[in-house]
Amino acid sequence: MLDVQTPVQSEMKAAPWPSNRKRWTIVGLLFTITVINLIDRQTLSVLAPILRENFHLSNVQYGRIVSALQFGMMAGELPLGHLMDRFGARIGLSFAVMWWSAATAAQAAARSGGMFGFIRFWMGTGECGNFSGGVKTIGRLFSQRDRTLAIGIFNSGSVVGSTLAPPLIVYLLHRYGFHAAFLVPATLGLLWVPVWWFAYGREHRPEHVRRTEEVSARTMLHDPNTWALMLCRGFIGPVMQFYWYWTPSYLASVHHASMLQIGMLAWIPFLFGDIGGVFGGWSAGKLQRRGMTVPKMRKLLMFSSSLVCLTSALVPMISEAGIAMLVIGIAVGADNFLSANMFAAITDLFEDKKVGRASAFMGVASGLSGLLFPLITGRLVDKISYTPVFLIVGLMPLVGTTFLFLFGRRYKTMPHPHWSSH
Q: Which domains can be identified in the chain, with CATH numbers?
């Protein structure tokens, strides 16, 4: 097969393989932008009690605004995944961050629920590039043995951002007003772009990876591994989204917490999540170094953590807000442990030239379920309570993990844990 390359691809192939120090510096930058990304997303949810009162929004209407972000992410996944595969993460992530940061700032000018919904859709079309670009970058820079740890660190930025968001946003709200709560995170994203651009340098590719013609979407959809990943993330994706977007509202409506109390409590579950994400990546590398095969390692870690996620069903039985946050923290930690391995599964099942597109298809599935689940949540909370919602989010990780190994064909044919190491 002819190896037809564009000038961009030729430059990528010519770029020297980065040092170990530079690779981990790049992971640090991916971690940082993921923190900023989640602060951007969380700003609306932390401010939700005030915004819902000011704009007279019901749980259903708030759910629609949350769904608008997910709809935007679903719409943007394939274009940005293609951009990452075609031009690389240096260009792709720079564009995505500038695009969503502009939308984050624009929320300061919103004056109705409809305007918030439109702007959140705009944000989503850019924010989806964070994970496809991060996974693409790590897949290129690290051997399979180290990828899960790198992805765990990068992905843990989502829970660090969720941890920092409540106290930070509440502080900005009380000190400078809600406009600053939108403008400060947007500015942080825009400041990150030049640092990424110059620190990353030219695109890096392993010398053994040869670039062939682009893989079509039709080809990807005929691959059972694509559907395995889509079904997995379709069930697992809405779990963290629920905790991100509904925890402040849950504290306000069920435990009658004030904004200051929300700022003091809402970060607790995400600290657990940070620990879970890094530990999930470390555990994967540890088991591989002991000789465990990739399929067996993924099954062990993902099924065991999905069972721990079931602890969320206990939350409605707890009357004390602090203890409820600790129990949610156990579920969030387990979910992020699971997610580190889920995202690493992309590089297990697909070669380099397909990783960006595979990540995008996963994002489409997550966007679709993330679009529907807030609407269902709003209905259930308005008509019943949070009880059935906590039960559903406890079960979804187990369902998603089951689909991954049921349809993930390549896991059934991997003869050795190091099949793709560099």
A: 7-201+217-412 (1.20.1250.20)
